[in-house]
Amino acid sequence: MAALSFEAAERYVLQRQRFGMRPGLGRMEVLLKRLGHPERRLSVVHIAGTNGKGSTAALLAAALQAAGYRVGLYTSPYIVSFTERICIDGMQMPRDHFAAEVASLQPLVEMIDASALGPMTTFELITAVALDYFSKQHLDVVVLEVGLGGRLDATNVVRPMLSIITNIGHDHMDVLGPTLGQVAYEKAGVVKSGVPLICGVELDEPARVIEAIAHRRHASAYWVHRAYEARMIESTLQGTTVDLTSCFGAIDNLFASLTGSYQVANIAAAAFAVQLLEKEGLERLNEDALRHGFAQVQWPGRFEQLGTDPLVIVDGAHNPEGAMALRTAILSLGEKGPLTLVVGVLEDKMLSPMLDALLPLADWIVATAPASPRALPAQQLAAAIRAKGQRVTATCDRVEEAVAVAYNTLPAGGWMVVTGSLYTVAQARRFCLSKMRKGSRMC
Length: 443
Prior knowledge:
Low-confidence stretches: none
Number of strands: 17
Strand order of the largest sheet: 4-3-2-5-1-6-7-8
């Protein structure tokens, strides 16, 4: 087995993006069998959902870690660093370990590539790296976030101790199906026979689909909105405070260091998971651990404040429900002065309702495009904004240019929100933080 540098390993994984998304479990099952089924040696909480699954995963992992458990966390996509997708106790997978894992899997991957199953995708390979790495690290729990859907997602090779579906919304419907019921069917693939399910879905059609599947699989289903009364006390740029009341009792003034009023639902789902896992035998996972973990959690790119003077916020809203949640979060801050909105989206998203939610809040709008082959060109986005009767202040092909233009033309008392895609947010975040570290302006 030839050694690989981190850079070579990263290139080997990312070059598989040319194979696109290829739903199906066949390639993962063959690879994991050859590896001796590392996934079977893990105690997993499996989290699916259109929005909020990453925040819920981060909250739950933080609480587990605060309780003294050794915790693996697998999420996607990355915001800062490629290896942040695979963490243990809040620490990213070391680069040399990542390179070694990729090198060890390379012969098996290329065997599968040459088979009738066809080539492995980027996400399949990263997931296999994570599962194999976690299995060698003597973890107590792995919190595993689904990539897309659930039923045919590469992560759906595990038998979890708990499944969570955060919500169902309008995203990836070209792959998952044209109705919310069909999207729910795909996401309910994470529901396993006899494994409890926590579900935050409130819409009737998808809820009925998930409830029927859980019933058929004899999975005890716990519905967050039925079991919990969650009341937001305060949402500030420092975090969100809620009162929770449930069959497990009351948790008053629970603070989570995640900003945005939309985090209330994620806080409730994660708290529910904490309390259920405690009842299922993780006895150290008590209210003290919950409070400490939630207060310390970090989750970049989700209504994240990057600067205070002027105020700069980045949020990865990338579908209609995410845009409405961002709208609510912006409004919850009250009057903050003139708002400049920097928007960059992928071409496969439901753009019109996203713009309907956000454009009326903006005084100035800058259209851009993230560095992705799936990006909607900035000029096309600008045309769509103008078609809504809104004026586009500037059109920039690069996110970094868009952020600099927006920042340097902010009026007195103005502030800025960058949104539309996690890819847009990742670029904006890197650019802003780099400039701030150097003590220079965004130009």
